[in-house]
Design brief:
Blueprint: H1 2-21, E1 57-61, E2 67-71, E3 73-80, E4 83-88, E5 96-101, E6 113-118, E7 124-130, E8 142-147
């Protein structure tokens, strides 16, 4: 009986080998399958360095509207009591503006409220200084920082 099983096994191997030799060439690849579901989000990396384009624009303006110093400032002017415009050398319409009351050479500044807004041009910021009662404007020096 064992000889019969061995003979069948040998014939099966020979038959499979013969069939494998009769295969034709491999055909072209089939179309791609459907896209799988999205994976889990990856880890958040560390913050990058501040680039050259991220250097904030700024202006230090005196109460009379004169530019004391700044970066990227084209002009600064006093329009009326407590109302100023600061124009920059680029579009600042998509930026944020922060202003603070300036000092007076080591003397604490008088209390004031400061507001900022985009001016009539895409390059101009309006700065308004108000007395503490918020009913009237007042001239004051100020620091303006623009971050884009």
């Amino acid at each position: 009986m064992r000889a019969g099983h061995h003979l069948i096994a040998v014939l099966a191997v020979l038959l499979l080998s013969a069939c494998a030799a009769l295969q034709g060439p491999i055909g072209p690849p089939g179309p791609p399958g459907a896209q799988g579901p999205p994976g889990e989000p990856g880890l958040v990396g560390p913050p990058g360095e501040v680039g050259a384009t991220e250097v904030p624009l700024f202006a230090l303006v005196a109460g009379d509207g004169q530019l004391v110093r700044g970066r990227g400032v084209a002009t600064a002017a006093r329009v009326s009591i407590g109302s100023y415009t600061v124009s920059f050398d680029r579009d600042v319409s998509g930026c944020v503006y922060t202003a603070t009351v300036g000092g007076r050479g080591g003397v604490p500044p008088e209390p004031r409220f400061i507001t900022t807004d985009l001016g009539g041009s895409m390059k101009t910021v309006i700065v308004e200084a108000w007395n503490v009662d918020a009913r009237s404007h007042a001239d004051t020096s100020f620091h303006l920082v623009v971050r884009c």
